[in-house]
Amino acid sequence: MNSGxxxxxLVLASSTGGVGRHVRxxxxxxxxxxxxVDVHGPAxxxxxxxxxxxxxGFAPVEIPARPHPLKDATALATLRRRLRADxxxxxxxxxxxxxxxxxxxxxxxLVVTWHNLLMARNPVLRGLERVVARSADxxxxxxxxxxxxxxxxxxxxxxPGPVAAPALEAPAKTxxxxxxxxxxxxxxxxTVSRLHQQKRLDVLIxxxxxxxxxxxxxxxxxxxxxxxxxxxxxxxxxxxxxxHRSDVAELLAACDVAVVTSDWEARQLFxxxxxxxxxxxxxxxxxxVPGLVSDGARLVPAGDPGAVAxxxxxxxxxxxxxxxxxxxxxxxAAGWPDEATVAAHAAAVxxxxxxSADAEHAPAEAPS
Length: 368
Description:
Rossmann fold
């Protein structure tokens, strides 16, 4: 068995949000605990998440967000070459796209974390999902509802794999300063989200027209931006798109209500940030969200603009209720695992698998 910490390869596909932040957090804490860590992902992820700055190695592997035969083949060849050269003790892929390429690269043992539910009904994608489930030596799932899905697809060893939102730094500006910079003097509703269909920001836009005098700000980028901007214009909705922001702590301190309108989420990172910051949250009751927030948020059905509008309106109209909800949310958040605990959980899985791999290749003892 290895006497030192396992050398770990972390693999991710194109990411601008939660997956990339989680991989950076893992890399940082694993390096701090003595692991040698190499991150393999698109060059843009290094630009955004700065894996090298926390002591990890980084090798560009251009795994696109969506299947693409030529790009996938190139990514596979690149990753296979890198893994053969580096010889990591464990490969840990994050998400189905990275999991598929890592499985094809053939380096074992392989851990795959499922961060999302595949929403598309494309039979080809469903088939690829099954390949990933059956290829992993250990599957970690970011929400409990994914455990059953991976098992049904043929997963062998499927376990919960908590994902903690990276801790936000204390706000550098006051609430008043941030609101002044945004040009807001009335109620402020906030969401931080990738602009993607799964996030159902169309529901937020449709709900927002019922909040008299309020401003809704959306921090994030993504492929749906043009369509969402058009919807805002058509409905004359009070919604502004801020793009990618590094001042989420300031935005949370400045807002009156935080909102999540997704069709599905696991351990939703913005929901975690909102509750930890002591902000009242309205969120859809989907995936792992109810188990995450319990009674620390107002839960509403997915795809229902009226329910979102009513829940937010009620909190804006009743500051005492909003404060009580925020306090309960902060109490719930205090019991969540932090980043160091999540990394320690992953490290224990690596040690288990690296030990098993060593044992398989050790010479058999002579019979007595």
